[in-house]
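Reviewers asked in the last cycle whether our approach scales beyond single polypeptides. To address this, we selected a multi-component target totalling 428 residues and predicted its structure end to end. The input consisted of the following lines:
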Amino acid sequence: MDFAKIITETTEEIFNCMIFIDIAASPPLAAGKQAMGCHVSAMIGLTGGLSAMLGIHCPSAVGLAVTGAMLGMELEEVDADVKDALGEIANMLAGGIKERLSTENIALELAIPTAVTGQSYVISAPKGSQRVVIPFTISQGQFFVEIKYQLN
Amino acid sequence: MGKTVLIVDDSNTMRKIVSRALRQAGIDFSTILEAGDGQEALDVLSANDVDVILSDINMPNMNGLEFLKAKSEIAAIKDIPVVMISTETGADIIDEAKSYGAKGAIKKPFTPELINETLGALL
Amino acid sequence: MEHAQEIINSTQEIFSSMIMLDVTPGEPFIRNNDKLINSISGIVGLAGATKGMLAIHMTNAAALAVTTAFLGMDVEEIDDDVRDAIGELANMLAGSIKSILDPSGSDIKLSMPSAIYGEDYSVDCLAGAEAVTVPFAFDGLGFVVELQLRKDS
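The resulting structure, written as structure tokens, was:
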């Protein structure tokens, strides 16, 4: 259950296949550090062999660039397309995690994505849950893919 | 002459993503039609000539498997090939889709090359 | 609106038994993705054959009052205790609603709760789920409980 590796590989696969933007993964953030400066997030719950929340968190400019590349169109503001596209990425990330963990005999089911947008918000997980956050860099800035989980 | 494709997905954004991938796949589609669920897809099929269908599996109202079943019972459209697109594509669901006549399955994330390969064989 | 009564029953039961607060329900409505100002939201994903989300959205003032009653200790700012309490509240509400909607326990599974808080944010569920929200009032404060469900027939 090497989430840093799973997240990095799954994210790279999605960007290589469907978004066509070069991304550079950084090492996981140190424990206790959060994704900062993000104004649009998509999250999806996973449950079964473990209970988890997977999220992708972006500054607006990064969310617009990623969605624009994914949809093949120019976008100017964080609208329903941006939320849906990030939701779709969260869904694919969760699908990739589900597939990889099934080979370790950990069965998972997915919820549906939720988008959070705003000028000022923080997303926290229960005390005692584990958290892995991987920063990725594109030319417009950084985004973060995060998993918070507890073993059931 | 260009072909007509029908994209069935409840997410408007996902339909745009699939449209973009179709353009990048280099297949000459003259018309890209869209439907938000299986029932809407049946309505579109009753009014248009469609060469191939790309359908999501998990959808409200009428899901992809129900759509396949309903379509297989309508003589005029039962032979139009359908390729399923889904994130959670377990082998059992794919087998079920194929038993209802699906010609293939594409798992997200997908590349334009995979779309080209899968659809090219059906057109 | 479908499921409003289940939300009311579950919320009243949990608030009266666990938090010792009597909460009064208002008219169910569709919340869309209205902005939340100086608020905290507890959300839990629902997975399985029926998918969705259960959320409780509270102003900071309501969250402090609820957490104070829930934990039996004074809390004065949105800290770890408040975030955990609101996440746990979402978890209990989701568990209770699940037990009504899915008595056999096979159709809906709960994922881990999260708390979202801030000065200005909005939360919206994607993927075309059916949504219903019920407002509740207590001691001049208020909160809403939102259920989004999507059954992939």
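Strands of chain B lie at 3-8, 29-35, 52-56, 82-86, 104-107. We regard this as preliminary and will revisit it once experimental data from Aim 1 are available.
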